[in-house]
């Protein structure tokens, strides 16, 4: 008797073919991340720039020599071999180009800040929804396995309790060249300044800590620092929830490098000092104190905080690309786009809008829109 035939294995999904719309420096980090993924996950099929020469130079640098050159953004969007677009253009250009990406049925990986305001973001998300394409922003730390481990601990009602206070600080000391010429200080390119750049991370970290429950009210800190063009260089705010939770954040282009977040619960405290970009690619740590008390007669702490180290084979930006490609491949196979990511992006933008409104109103309280 012959043995039964082996089951036929379905072919692996083909690689998601990305087009890169613009040659910003951050696009090099995304390109490197794609090279780290297993074969068949993602590839850069084309690069679009405002000139052939710039796109060609970019391609020669990023390790995808077979990528096609497009000397205009429009040309890349018309490329039938591009099924997903990574868009790192200045924020002021997001609405026209992101909606054009979606209108052509291409999935969208969009740099943060995703828009100048929620109304603009809604136009982008509406276009993605109408075309049935996947949307995700590029907040990379969300995809680090450390973040999942921290979520596990913060969700432990016995060891951590209920979240009561969050403090977040994101900053870097910008050079004089940056403060004069970077797009993030230009009102016509990225008018949100530091609030849209590292302030985005502060707001996302706070929302993450409370499982994306929107605050009720926001009050910006007084005396934000602006440049001569009126773009924010340093600012902060306090967020209030109806049940008494509070959060504070500060973001700055004028202070030493910091990506600190501390979450205080009724039973525990979690502290991470390198949230946005870990000190090392292959591991990331944080500390947790639980049910802390003093050693009598007030001479120490018991128990001591515990350090957790989470290792990873791939850096967080590669894990982000891996998750995005998985979602695109699911849509390609007949599934629906994952709605979690646009919902999280929108909540971040809504809070950012409220902070900006409070700054513009001289630190008056602003209610957060639902």
Describe this structure in words.
It is built from eleven helices and 18 strands. With 370 residues, it is of the alpha/beta class. Strands 7, 8, 9, 10, 11, 12, 13, 14, 17 and 18 form a ten-stranded mixed beta sheet that branches. A hairpin with a 2-residue loop joins β12 and β13 (268-272). α1 (26-36) crosses α10 (316-332), α5 (118-131) packs antiparallel against α11 (340-360) and α9 packs across α11 (340-360). The longest helix is centred in the C-terminal third of the chain and has 21 residues, at 340-360. It starts with 15 loop residues before the first strand and ends with a strand.
Shape: globular
Kindly provide the radius of gyration, computed on alpha-carbon positions and rounded to a whole number of angstroms.
22 Å
- Tell me, rounded to a whole number, the average pLDDT: 96
Helix-strand pattern = EHEHEHEHEHEHEHHHEEEEEEEEEEHHE
Oligomer: single chain
Report how far apart the termini are: 68 Å
Query: How many E strands?
Result: 18
**Which range does the strand content fall in?**
25-35%
CATH class of the largest domain: Alpha Beta
The main β sheet shows up as: 10 strands, mixed
Number of domains: 2
CATH superfamily label of the largest domain: Dihydrodipicolinate Reductase, domain 2
CATH third-tier fold name of the largest domain: Dihydrodipicolinate Reductase, domain 2
Low-confidence stretches: none
CATH architecture grouping of the largest domain: 2-Layer Sandwich
């Amino acid at each position: 008797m012959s043995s039964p035939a082996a089951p036929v294995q379905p072919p692996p999904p083909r690689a998601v073919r990305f087009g890169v719309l613009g040659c910003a420096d951050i696009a090099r980090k995304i390109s490197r991340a794609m090279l780290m993924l297993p074969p068949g996950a993602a590839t850069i099929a084309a690069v679009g720039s405002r000139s052939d020469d710039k796109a060609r130079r970019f391609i020669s640098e990023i390790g995808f020599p077979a990528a096609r050159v497009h000397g205009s953004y429009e040309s890349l969007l018309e490329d039938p071999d591009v099924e997903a677009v990574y868009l790192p253009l200045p924020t002021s250009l997001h609405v026209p180009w992101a909606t054009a990406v979606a209108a052509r049925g291409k999935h969208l990986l969009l740099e943060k800040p995703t828009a100048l305001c929620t109304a603009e973001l809604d136009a982008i998300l509406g276009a993605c929804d109408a075309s049935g394409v996947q949307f995700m922003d590029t907040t990379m730390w969300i995809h680090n396995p450390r973040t999942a481990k921290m979520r596990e601990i913060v969700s432990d009602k016995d060891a951590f309790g209920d979240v009561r206070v969050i403090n977040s600080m994101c900053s870097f000391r910008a050079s004089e060249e940056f403060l004069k010429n970077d797009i993030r200080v230009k009102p016509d390119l990225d008018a949100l300044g530091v609030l849209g750049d590292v302030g985005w991370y502060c707001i996302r970290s706070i929302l993450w800590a409370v499982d994306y429950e929107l605050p009720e009210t926001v009050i910006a800190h007084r005396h934000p620092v602006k440049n001569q063009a009126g773009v924010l260089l340093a600012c902060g705010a306090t967020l209030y929830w109806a049940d008494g939770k509070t959060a504070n954040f500060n973001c700055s282009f004028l202070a030493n490098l910091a990506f600190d977040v501390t979450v205080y619960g009724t039973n525990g405290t979690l502290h991470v000092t390198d949230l946005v970009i870990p000190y090392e690619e292959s591991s990331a740590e944080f500390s947790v104190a639980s049910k802390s008390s003093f050693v009598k007669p007030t001479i120490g702490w018991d128990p001591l905080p515990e350090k957790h180290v989470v290792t990873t084979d791939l850096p967080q930006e590669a894990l982000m690309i891996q998750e995005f490609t998985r979602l695109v491949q699911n849509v390609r196979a007949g599934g629906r786009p994952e709605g979690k990511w646009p919902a999280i992006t929108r909540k971040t933008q809504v809070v950012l809008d409220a902070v900006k409104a409070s700054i513009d109103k001289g630190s008056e309280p602003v209610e957060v829109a639902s």
